[in-house]
Specification:
Helix 7 (about 170-180) packs across helix 14 (about 305-325) and helix 10 crosses helix 14 (about 305-325). By secondary structure, the protein is of the alpha/beta class. The chain has helices at about 15-25, 45-60, 70-80, 105-115, 120-135, 155-165, 170-180, 200-205, 215-235, 240-255, 255-270, 275-285, 290, 305-325, and strands at about 25-30, 40, 45, 60-70, 85-90, 100, 140, 190.
């Protein structure tokens, strides 16, 4: 099997493994895509990203990924040799782009790659990502969608209290919580999200939620509503409240920057960028290179199916709650 760094590019400055170890950082250039690098619900995935993380760990340094617009930019920056150590691309049949690239002036780094690389690593990384994406995403105890007639969960009073602060129907907040954790305050996702509303650690830091309090029901719900309020502020120009909330829910799950990418594409194509059904179509299209490589798209590839399903399920459950439970 051809090692993935066979396509080597010359660089102008000497900055080899010794200097990388001194700075403690390996800088890799890549392109967005399902096999390379993408953001997924607050985490980074992509088979070659996972491999690059393994290689950086092998070297004892941290990894910094720099996403390029296209291969031309990647090759130009790698050729300059001043702000990157590796070019990380999938193996292809194109003889000019066989995969990972190392500058000729980095023999130490190239030798380290040869020592680290085993033909089984690529398959193992693919299996690791497959398990991440197909395993049950949240380890949790399953709770009933409603406790009894007129009562949705043990946390109804908290939903009512904190939803008032952002002007949401508390039953919509409850529907979102069910989708996130089925009302399990101890729920933990494979990506590290915790609690009733599945807040990521970095988001908790941003919201002022202490990490040792992430599974506290009230603290978690309070932080989640603050986050919802922040997201809604970003869409304040959408006058229809339901449509605005749909964009917020989609952003909570898939990331606001991906949703804004989809909105730009929808507007470009003459669709209504303030209507979820129109934007939803482009959320789904962001898995297609024709769309995620478009110059209007700033954050690349997206696994949009899950985000579309997330909003659909919350809305369906909210409608059920609205029929059965008083506001």
């Amino acid at each position: 099997m051809v090692p993935p760094w066979q396509g080597e590019m010359p660089t102008s400055d000497v900055y080899d493994l010794s200097q990388i170890e001194q700075t403690g950082e390996l800088i890799a250039l890549t392109l967005t895509g399902p096999d390379t690098y993408y953001d997924y619900q607050g985490s980074h995935l992509g088979v070659h990203y996972l491999l690059a993380e393994q290689f950086a760990s092998y070297l004892g340094v941290r990894l910094r990924i720099e996403v390029c617009r296209d291969t031309t930019e990647l090759l130009r920056r790698l050729h300059a040799g001043k702000d990157a150590d590796l070019g990380v691309l999938p193996l292809t049949s194109d003889t000019t782009l066989l995969g990972w690239m190392v500058g000729d002036s980095k023999p130490e780094l190239r030798n380290a790659l040869h020592e680290w690389y085993q033909p089984t690593l690529l398959a193992e990384a693919k299996e690791t990502e497959r398990q991440m994406l197909t395993q049950r995403r949240v380890t949790r105890r399953v709770h009933a969608p409603m406790l009894r007639r007129g009562v949705i969960s043990l946390y109804d009073e908290m939903f009512k209290r904190y939803s008032r602060g952002i002007g949401w129907d508390w039953r919509l907040l409850a529907a979102q919580c069910y989708q996130e954790s089925t009302f399990d305050p101890e729920a933990v996702s494979w990506a590290g999200a915790k609690g009733l509303m599945q807040i990521m650690p970095k988001t908790a830091d941003h919201l002022g939620l202490a990490r040792d309090m992430m599974t506290d029901p009230e603290q978690n719900i309070a932080a989640a509503t603050r986050y919802l309020h922040e997201l809604e502020h970003e869409f304040q120009y959408i006058h229809d409240r339901t449509e605005r909330q749909n964009m917020v829910l989609a952003s909570y799950n898939g990331g606001i920057f991906h949703i804004q990418d989809a909105m730009r594409l929808a507007e470009r194509d003459g669709r209504n960028a303030q209507r979820w059904d129109d934007v939803r179509e482009y959320v789904l299209k962001l898995k297609d290179p024709h769309y995620y490589q478009d110059t209007l798209v700033h954050y690349g590839y997206m696994r949009g199916t899950e985000t579309a399903d997330y909003v659909d399920r919350i809305r369906a459950r909210f409608n059920e709650y609205a029929r059965k439970v008083r506001q």
